[in-house]
Amino acid sequence: MCNTAITMPQTASTETGFDEWFVTAINGGALMLMVSIGHRTGLFDTMSEMSWTNSKELAEKAGLNERYVREWLGAMATGGVVEVDESDCYRLPEEYGQFLTRDTELDNLAVIAQYIAVLGSVEDDIVECFYKGGGVPYEKYDRFHEVMAEDSGMTVLDALEDHILPLVPGLTEKLQNGISVLDVGCGRGRAMLKMAGLFPKSTFKGLDLSEEAIGWAKSKAREKGLENVEFEICDASDFDQTAEPNKYDFVTTFDAIHDQANPLAVLRGINRTLKPGGTYLMQDIHSTGHVHKNMNHPLGPALYTVSCMHCMSVSLAQGGDGLGAMWGREKAQELLQKAGFEDIQIYQLEHDIQNDYYVMKK
């Protein structure tokens, strides 16, 4: 029985009319598609190198079609991303550009906008799932691993050495001296590639279900000349049985467990493959398992959408649990304990409003 206590999200409060909120939301959604295009075509990067410019000059410098650039500028200007004057010349303000370009010390927020288009590409498949159940398999999501790799570059790669690894006391020194490391659900393997470069005395291995992602990781390892890292295509659904016992000193998962078909089996496999005294570090979504407690989550609508249209659906497509991205700390701790982890420390990092970091010793 539901009670009558109602919590309204700030974005759709009764203080501003729902119709006004809806217009703002639909404009925002449309704008994200155009921001994604601006990122992929390098238009933001090109504009950041120019002062006031018109569509012809910008298109020529970016090597793009002027007619499409002109319409894109219209969306950027009316959306408040770029400035426009009376002669239809445009400028990307420096204070905005630092959040939208590749060569910046700040997070490139345009990367995140790409999720809207990627998820939209499977809308028909998701609608069918609403009627028939089941899920949408990994291979249906064009570019998802590419976008995830860019995203993790901000939340994981840039913070790995100075913020994430130090969550485990003494770990950096062990990596410098030489230990064995495994990353389950590694995607394109960028975390393993970076650590392999930083710690040449240690050995690294990445596992992922995606043939495309593993192929990219292997190619990049060869390109960098890294001989202390390897990658393998692996369905971890039965990892509790197939994981090699007492093999690794350090195991990581970055935003991967909630996507798994059988997350408990994966966690049990991680416990199984850790050496006694080894450490497991799990990055996963910061949330609770209750919608009413997530009402003020800064990324609530986005994360539930990604969950419905990717994380949950990919798991269900494998006949899995379909936990979804917003499975919450409560469920995460429950499964970790069932997998045999007892002392579970949970951290949040200032740069990452999206994730929690769980640290466990075997």
From TrEMBL:
Keywords tagged on the record: Methyltransferase, Transferase
CDD domains for the chain: AdoMet_MTases
Annotated S-adenosylmethionine-dependent methyltransferase Rv2258c-like winged HTH domain residues: 30-102
Residue span, Methyltransferase domain: 177-338
InterPro entries xref list: Methyltranfer_dom, SAM-binding_MTase, SAM-dependent_MTases_sf, WH-like_DNA-bd_sf, WH_DNA-bd_sf, WHD_Rv2258c
Gene Ontology MF: a single term: methyltransferase activity
Any GO BP annotation: methylation
Keyword set includes Methyltransferase: yes
PANTHER family assigned: METHYLTRANSFERASE TYPE 11, S-ADENOSYLMETHIONINE-DEPENDENT METHYLTRANSFERASE RV2258C
Protein name listed in UniProt: Methyltransferase domain-containing protein
Origin species: Fodinibius salsisoli
Lineage: Bacteria, Pseudomonadati, Balneolota, Balneolia, Balneolales
